[in-house]
Amino acid sequence: MTTTTIEVQERAASAAFGRRKVSPRVCIIDSKPHLRAFLADTLEELRFVTSECGDPEELASRIAEQQPDVLVIGSSIGGVEAARIIDTACNAGFRGSVILISARETIALRGILHHGLERGLTMLPPLSTPFSAQMLRECIAPLLPQEPPPKPEVDVAEALKTGWLELWYQRKLDARSLTPSGAEALVRMRHPSWGVVVPSAFLPDQNDPHFRALSEFVVARAIADWRYLLDHHGPVDLSINLPAKFLLDAQAVEDLCAWMPRHPAFGGLIIEIDSLEVAQHLDAMIEIAQSLRLHNIAIAVDKVGADWPELMRLDAFPFVELKVDRSFVTGCADDRLKRTVCKRIVDLAADYGARCTATGIESRSDYIAAHELGFDLVQGYLFGKPMGLKKFARAVSTKPLGTLE
Predict the structure, then answer these.
(1) What is the pairing mode between strands 355-358 and 377-378?
(2) What is the pLDDT of residues 218-274, one digit of tens each?
(3) 3-state percent breakdown (helix, strand, coil) of the chain, nearest 5
(4) Over the stretch 290-346, which tens digit does the pLDDT of each residue have?
(5) Where are the alpha helices (DSSP H) in 335-388?
(6) CA-CA distance, 380 to 386, in Å (whole number)?
(7) CA angle, corner 285, sides to 280 and 288, nearest 5?
(8) CA distance 257 to 272
(9) 117, 100, 118, 96: which is closest to 109 by C-alpha?
(10) Quick one: which of 335, 385, 341, 333 has its CA closest to 364?
(11) pLDDT above 50: residue 169
(12) pLDDT at 320
């Protein structure tokens, strides 16, 4: 197969996917679960809808059910078996692209590429092991959607009913030692046509009658995920985001307290409430926070920014954490006004005996600035993006990040 052939096929694949109104689908075929998981995680970040196939005998049914656009054949698949997979796929109606993963270029690899071309498939350049996420992105680049993702026409009620919702987790780290210090849960929707969808595309207005059900889902899933992490890694302190309206409902608060684990390893649940909502219901939030502490639940004030004076001179301050809005953290290394606001909030938290978290850190300079300003915790893409539960469990089991100074 010549380079010219590959380039022509790549252009054709790119043009085809650029016209798509939904995310392309990929089926990963390999007997090694850890490789399938790595490939799925990376491809989902690129807006692919993924499925896995550990047994080639299941491939025909997977193609019929999910109609993938891409097959990724892993390195554990031998030459004869790979050719059989290609035949099975074609016989099942597959007409898309194939990526082969191999330890090195071999005669067998060339034979599989030639066999796929003869069957009319688009054979993309093979990936040699070991490979990085960036190498996979470059290989799959011709298939990436060329248009911005559309807003799914789905409401939260349908997502709850169909089981499309899940929680992803982003690590919080100690600002001094960069050791893990819990994680924040963020709701995501895994749509069958659009792949992983961020909350802005589907979260309802707080007056929506289904918002209560969504809040209850977040609590229940976080508790279930905490138990999973306990079994697979150890206890991890979790925080979730809820609207103040949920906590203003006495029955909802009673249910929330009843759902808390009684396990001795459970360190408690942190509920993050937007600072604007806290300010609107300040007296009620103070009373609720005081009550919840006795049930192993704490309230953190999220997205604190220019409104920080609203939290000054309170007779009671039962909030466990102040999280500074990312708009004041990002670029604070070079912006005197932002540094001033951050420092005021850090000092305010210290005066009340609460911890202070810098959110949205994406650069080394902003981390150093946060460290110098005295933040207790840091959070942001510099230390890791939000990730699905199983990937997060693997990530928190790795060694500490060390220091960036």
Answers:
(1) parallel
(2) 999 999 999 999 998 899 999 999 999 999 999 999 999 999 999 999 999 999 999
(3) 45, 20, 35
(4) 999 999 999 999 999 988 898 888 889 999 999 999 999 999 989 999 999 999 999
(5) 336-352, 364-373
(6) 9
(7) 155
(8) 16
(9) 100
(10) 333
(11) yes
(12) 97
Name residue 124's amino acid: L
* CA pair distance 166, 224, nearest whole angstrom: 11
- Residue 364 reports pLDDT greater than 90: yes
Cβ proximity of 328 and 305 under 8 Å:
yes
> 6 burial class (0-12, 13-18, 19+ CB within 10 angstroms)?
middle
Q: What is the pLDDT of residue 399?
A: 52
Cα–Cα distance between 74 and 112 in angstroms, integer? 13
DSSP state of 130: S
Which residue type, as a one-letter code, is found at position 1? M
**CB-CB contact of 296 with 324 (8 Å):** no
* pLDDT at residue number 1: 39
Using CA atoms of 121, 122, 125, 126 in order, give the dihedral in degrees to the nearest 10. -30
What pLDDT, on a 0 to 100 scale, did the predictor assign at position 398? 65
Distance (Å, whole) CA 112 – CA 102: 11
Alpha-carbon span 125 to 10, nearest angstrom: 9
Query: Tokens 């005081």 identify what position?
Result: 290
